[in-house]
Amino acid sequence: MLGRDIVDALHGRDVSAPSRAELDITDRDAVRAAVAGHDVVINAAAFTAVDAAEHDQAAAFAVNATGAGLLAEAAHDAAARFVQVSTDYVFHGDATQPYDETAPLDPVNVYGRSKAEGERLATAATDGELQIVRTAWLYGAHGRNFARTIWTACSEGKELRVVDDQLGQPTWTVDVAQRIVDMLDLGLPRGVYHATSSGEASWFDFARAIAKAAGGDEARVTPIDSAGHERDASRPSYSVLGHHGWQSTLLEPIRHWRDALDAAVARGVLEDR
Length: 273
Description:
Blueprint: H1 2-9, H2 28-35, E1 40-43, H3 50-53, H4 57-77, E2 81-87, H5 110-125, E3 131-135, E4 138-139, H6 146-155, E5 160-163, E6 167-168, E7 171-172, H7 173-185, E8 191-194, E9 197-198, E10 201-202, H8 203-213, E11 221-224, E12 254-256, H9 257-266
Parallel strand pairs: 1-2, 2-3, 3-8, 4-7, 5-11, 9-12
Antiparallel strand pairs: 6-10
Helix pairs in contact: 1-7, 2-4, 4-5, 6-8
């Protein structure tokens, strides 16, 4: 979902974008061969099945940790810039104000721990000469995601019960992709950046906004708490990320999530394809 939008944002440039079938990022030799000759490496690959990760820790860590480290190592050895895409799940989620880029990592599930280890390995492999871009609550045109699922359900007039005690920042992949490209074009300093929409919302708030945009009945979306929607993996209850990293740059934080949703809907991003 994000990778395809990054490729689109890099239009007019010489871009390699191997799929999972074309490149095993846990194979050091394959990774080195794929990275050779490139000036920039952006790691948008990830094991993102959060609940499945609880039952297959080895697979999650192989992709999210080992793979990230190998890509970073190969990029460093090739003198290429390296960008590691990470997640809000590296934090515990018990905060009451947005997580700063320098906040201690304390994930609550296997997926979060594997991504935190990926950050650590990538940082070690590059001697800290990398950019880590954390994002969250992604939706977009490519692949399954919460926003498209809600849009379809609302368009069909279904009743929906949605969690209202988890807060985060719904973020369109197009905005993240363009932010990564702008970051590279401007030559921003190495470090950690939070590429999420401004504002905050619960999943319930987000679903209600989607229902309204879809022309559905917002009253058909009703709130529940997390206890009524048990999952295999624990979720952070507060996933709002701060945007201090952009203050010393020429870039403003990403636009408000409602403005992004309006733009995505106008482009037909959430409709069945």
